[in-house]
Amino acid sequence: MSKIVLIGANHAGIAAANTLLDSYPENELVIFDRNTNLSYLGCGTALWVGRQINSYEHLFYTNKEAFEDKSAKVHMETSVESIDFDQKKVVAKTKDGVEIVEHYDKLILATGSVPIAPNIIGSDLENVQFVKLFQDGQKADQALADPNVKEVAVIGAGYIGVEIAEAAKRRGKNVRLFDAADTCLNTYYDSWFTKDMDKVLENNGIHNHFGELVQEYKGVDGKVTTVVTDKGEYAADLVLMAIGFAPNNTLGKDKIETFTNGAYKVNLKQETNLPDVYAVGDCATIYSNALEDTTYIALATNAVRSGIVAGHNVGGTPLESIGVQGSNGISIFGYNMVSTGLNIAAAEKAGFEVKYTEFEDLQKPGFMKDNGNVKIRIIYDAKNRRVLGAQMASTEDISMGIHMFSLAIEEKVTIDKLKLLDIFFLPHFNQPYNYITMAALSAE
């Protein structure tokens, strides 16, 4: 029997804990988490705040009691102060200041990520806040319920920023979306797609301020009133910051080998360079099948898979990750975008000789009443023709198609293999000349 200490109990930590408790119940598991709750699906914050779902209760999928019922010892609202990796000792402190010391045979770090916080003057003003934790969602929801809050500024036009901008608009606010980049969502998508999403935002009443750098927040009586950028000043009763996240490596970063961005560097078994110390989720690196190299991709789905892998290895069953593609998607005002692998900028930055092929058509035959336009782009390596990435967008639900491209990247499929792929036709679903086939056939 081994004693396992797990630090952090959100998606990655929960997956590791459940794997250990369900498959290796002979071990002792001690869990630390500094929050009041666990298992919050942050991707649902905008849905709840924007009133697209009725309440937040179902955004939690487990709780402390569920782990205690499986015989785990759980310390909530308890912060780990230090780790002695030589003595295998964890020192923590409860919210009441009570010190807890636990020794371990194996340690899993699932410390997650923290919001990127630029040193902007006025960040400490009232109604300037991040959007990450459940408590952040509560604060934003309460602020949006205030009739005096009319002007909302969202800082950062990544996934969370775009989603929370939509949510604020759905609550009847005047919304401005700021980003230093010249378009939204540019980390995952090429401009052929992001420019369309820019228009979707604008057509639904959101004011885009792209290519604009926030420099200061001004306030009156301690409450924010103005956002100052390098191009102007704008009224703001509420500022929601969604600039991005960085790995939370506070514990052990001086002992554990880290990646270029500070994430704990792990192998395919989620092992760090220290004996019996594992790292999972947003605090750790991951292997990209598109890059064929170690990288950092903070997604909940990746976190869950890494937790499962670590759980089995810690429990005694050797298991290696098969790598990821970074598959993701977003739906804003009914416009859906999905991607996997690398976009053009990321592929070129990684040193690939990039080619791409694209196609645009209706999802279904023109005689079908319920229909929508579809855009697809497939990116591939000009040298070996291996698929590196794919992006799709439509008002139709085209999300399942991206999973095929995810598998194609994982299995190193070439663009030529897709040219005569067996894709069925039925007017209810697609066209006889499917846009995936047509894109592949038009590849050089």
Write up what this structure looks like.
InterPro entries: FAD-bd_OxRdtase, FAD/NAD-bd_sf, FAD/NAD-binding_dom, FAD/NAD-linked_Rdtase_dimer_sf, NOXase, Pyr_nucl-diS_OxRdtase_dimer. This is NADH oxidase. It comes from Vagococcus allomyrinae. Residues 334-430 form the Pyridine nucleotide-disulphide oxidoreductase dimerisation domain. Its cofactor is FAD. This protein has helices at residues 11-23, 45-49, 64-68, 134-144, 159-170, 191-203, 300-315, 344-349, 401-410, 435-441; strands at 3-7, 28-32, 73-75, 78-84, 89-94, 99-103, 106-109, 113-115, 128-130, 151-155, 174-179, 207-210, 214-220, 223-229, 233-235, 238-241, 245-247, 277-279, 286-288, 293-295, 328-332, 335-341, 354-362, 373-381, 387-394. It is of the alpha/beta class and 444 residues long. The chain folds into three domains: 3-113 and 246-315, FAD/NAD(P)-binding domain; 117-243, FAD/NAD(P)-binding domain, CATH 3.50.50.60; 335-441, 2-Layer Sandwich (Enolase-like, domain 1), CATH 3.30.390. It has a five-stranded parallel beta sheet with strand order 3-2-1-7-18. A hairpin with a 4-residue loop joins strand 4 (78-84) and strand 5 (89-94). The longest helix is centred in the C-terminal third of the chain and has 16 residues, at 300-315. The N and C termini lie far apart (58 Å). 44% of the residues are buried. The model has no long low-confidence stretch (mean pLDDT 96).
